[in-house]
């Protein structure tokens, strides 16, 4: 979706176990939901 | 609503209600982590978080660390989409310095109140918070060197519209540096249409 919007140089990571130990952990584990960092640039 | 999985207005109301609670009762029980323990979990450096007063940190409810790929540059102009209680905006403000500028945008009045009080107490004159939606940012075209966001785009029904809006406010060559959640296993369509799962 980032590239479809016109962004380039898309990078993903690092990642985190965002919901580990939280009340919402069960839902997160069901779908393997984790947090990620993303970086993308617009063409200059 | 078109091809969207959920009604954007209904979802916004649900999200506002949830984050109003985080703003006004940050010590409450939520399905996600909050505050300093969350910042530590997400690898915010202690030297970044420890000096900040509790009022800045306690309502932090991000899902990752948008600064992990690299710090922002001195003097950069920044838009924080879904700035919440202002934690990431304050981190950004300290990275860009007084020669930079940070505009936080949020749709929850209680979060805006908290964020404005925070930056006033810290004397951060180069940070301001504006009421608005991620799909309609109150920021001029081509204004930002960088857009940050943390756990917000996943809460928007029309992600393509949000990304188009972010593109509008970024200058050519600018960057989007954000954190958000992604699922490693497919989510059935029935679950994707369950608005309660979007916020819980």
UniProtKB/TrEMBL annotation, chain A:
Top-level taxon of origin: Bacteria
Name of the protein this chain belongs to: Methyltransferase family protein
TrEMBL record, chain B:
Entry EC no(s): 2.1.1.137
Enzyme class: transferase
Coiled-coil regions, chain positions: none
InterPro entries linked: Arsenite_MeTrfase-like (IPR026669), Methyltranfer_dom (IPR025714), SAM-dependent_MTases_sf (IPR029063)
BP GO annotations: methylation
Keyword Iron: no
Domain annotation Methyltransferase: ranges: 74-193
Record's keyword terms, sorted: Methyltransferase, S-adenosyl-L-methionine, Transferase
Tagged with keyword Methyltransferase: yes
Reaction catalyzed: arsenic triglutathione + 3 [thioredoxin]-dithiol + 3 S-adenosyl-L-methionine = trimethylarsine + 3 [thioredoxin]-disulfide + 3 glutathione + 3 S-adenosyl-L-homocysteine + 3 H(+); arsenic triglutathione + [thioredoxin]-dithiol + S-adenosyl-L-methionine + 2 H2O = methylarsonous acid + [thioredoxin]-disulfide + 3 glutathione + S-adenosyl-L-homocysteine + H(+); arsenic triglutathione + 2 [thioredoxin]-dithiol + 2 S-adenosyl-L-methionine + H2O = dimethylarsinous acid + 2 [thioredoxin]-disulfide + 3 glutathione + 2 S-adenosyl-L-homocysteine + 2 H(+)
A Pfam family of this chain: Methyltransf_31
UniProt GO molecular function: arsenite methyltransferase activity
SUPFAM superfamilies per the UniProt record, alphabetical: S-adenosyl-L-methionine-dependent methyltransferases
Family listed: Belongs to the methyltransferase superfamily. Arsenite methyltransferase family.
Protein name: Arsenite methyltransferase
